[in-house]
């Protein structure tokens, strides 16, 4: 596992849209500074100064004269705080009037400064002032009236541009809760923070805190009062004071909002009389309503009316007022929804409809995303009964709203929270706090309740350690596993994954090593390299909620059995509860039956010339090059206008280089490689355990990999590469940026996909970087991750030969993967499509826009929640750019282009390659100005053993999706 003392924080790598040199600072240094600020009576502040309008700075006794425009007085920051901001883009400072509006909006860095301000405000509430623990009492450090005035000017400025609201509606609404501008404060967050602090000091208060965080309502006031009365004698005076402050906050929070005051706010709006009339009517209607259900409906309508009509409001001041009204309405709805207690299925589904619509008004989903689901979730009368199939469709759509909403919060704040969590672990809870303060909290509980009802009706029930909310769990890949349960909170990128463990984490890393099983909050997307490898190897994989992850923490470190069926139900139990049949699944004989052997008799290592990609076809796969190059050469002949030119460095050139003497050794690379596998075989015969053999191989391969990366390339090969490069690409080596794609003989076999195992180098321009890149790609099959995946599935993983596909980069607007069959949803003739913006989209587990495309329809399964993308520079290399979610990635023309190209692939590719092949294809493609480019095609490989397992079939229920269920049924 990663050790905090050894962490180095990399900040400022991507600024102003271009790649800069990374600034680094040890996390330990930041931690020491934080502790120093906490203990200092001035906190992070240095001295009180006058800051004049002309830019000059004066001492406290020398105020700014009116002749130069006057000025304001506040504290300056310590040099260390300024250095963190200037050199590392860490903004701990919370004095708003210190900032220029455009710099604080920080659009070029995805609004990081604004988000950091909110995170710091959160830390102040949950950690006794955080770095301002003593500095908050430093007199004159800031002036509240100056801060509010700055806040108003900030919002007036950014709200002048409607584009900011279109692209950052959720962020702007959230920031209004934290930036002073109208005397308001984030009462809901304060209530949760105060209860958290008390529970940390008084463990017996924990149950009350959990209730306030997970299922809040106004009865909590009586609960806290009762706790204070019963436990007063054992509490310190400071603890009693904190409980009194919490009660005061709760009373303020649950005090009914005056409709009259809200109507006054509506009347102050300038322009758009229709909006004023509709909001006034809705507010008056809300006041008249008696039932919580009707009140919630009116409030959701107010939220959405404001969002729909804001573009028509010209005044930035009126927009600010409407957004404040929206936040107040959202707070009222949050409280009222707790009062809505559905008594039957009909009422529960109506509550889900209303809260889903409210998620739109709150900014948690985008306008176009609502259009995709409103046919199912728009508030309307429901029939007396519905079939199980119809209920399942309703559940899938409403579950989608919950997942898209929580993903929005993570996408907006995730990167900055991750940075702060490295040196301040309390930051990690910020995202959870935002989710819990939104309508998603009650919507998620309602959807979970509906899922439980449907599961019972259909007999499709999960059984996962008996935790609550089991119905929110969805099976993704079928399979079964046995091993130690490892629950990881926060980032997993530095986790040392072990093959015999079952991992529960928030999001799959881009470079996952083979493991026994997976559960993730964010599934990434169905067709990422990690998901395809897991599917290929029969590794069980399920999507869970954040609450599920927390509930499973108590079982961390215990041995469990885990299974996912093809129908998507999930089972997990402790080792002691396993049946004989389940124990029998993990006998040595059972485990070894699913391995295959790579054919090496076809390989032609005597082909040692650089080859034009046009000269190869699918028949050459495994002979002179890997399937990427062979299949792309085939595609070039079939679809010449949709495929780039390319060069191939065949297996034989790599094999030639292995005959050279290995630096620091008395043998050649080839002799060293063979000696390694021969010794491993001897160790097997001597009954050495697998871990010992694996350790020996990994150590030897690490030495080999390093040596390959440093090897000297043969001069005749370099000369030939330069000649062929100019012939194919029309320019000399070093003048056209190219991709170098590893392409081994172990990829894309009929029963194994090597998706993403080996190295692809992006957009390299300089000659020496290309030459070094070739060696790095040759070395990549010998990395620990690549070796472990191969050895898990292949009987002869030692026979790896890399070729390299050299192709120019296409600066696509968006790119992704198309699987020519339905995955988890849809039929065998449908398409599963996943795209992200920029180059290399969807393959590395980005939160991609995923769709099920049939001949007639195009269903959104999930929108993208990936805030950044890769842009290819003409000068070589790549840039990190940011995007928003207010528009879909794929348009209807793109969908039609995908349908057409797939139709042609299904006809032409089998004719020219394997007429007997009837399976699906895994295709990588992209769009540049709506033109489709094909980058790769391979057979789509699924684990047949997992799909056809007799055990999995035995725990898969038989479902009658036509069964009718009465919606008047009590719940």
Strand portion = 15-25%
Percent range of helical residues: 40-55%
Number of helices: 34
CATH architecture of the largest domain: 2-Layer Sandwich
| Count of strand segments | 30
Walkthrough of the structure:
About 45% of the residues are buried. This protein has 6 domains: about 5-180, no CATH class; about 190-255, no CATH class; about 340-460, no CATH class; about 465-590, 3-Layer(bba) Sandwich (Glucose Oxidase, domain 1); about 605-810, Dna Ligase, domain 1 (2-Layer Sandwich), CATH 3.30.1490.20; about 810-940, ATP-grasp fold, B domain (D-amino Acid Aminotransferase, Chain A, domain 1), CATH 3.30.470. It contains 34 helices and 30 strands. α14 (about 290-310) packs parallel to α16 (about 345-360) and α16 runs antiparallel to α20 (about 440-460). Residues about 1-20 and about 590-595 have low confidence and may be disordered. The strands form 8 sheets. It has an 8-stranded mixed beta sheet. It is an alpha+beta fold.
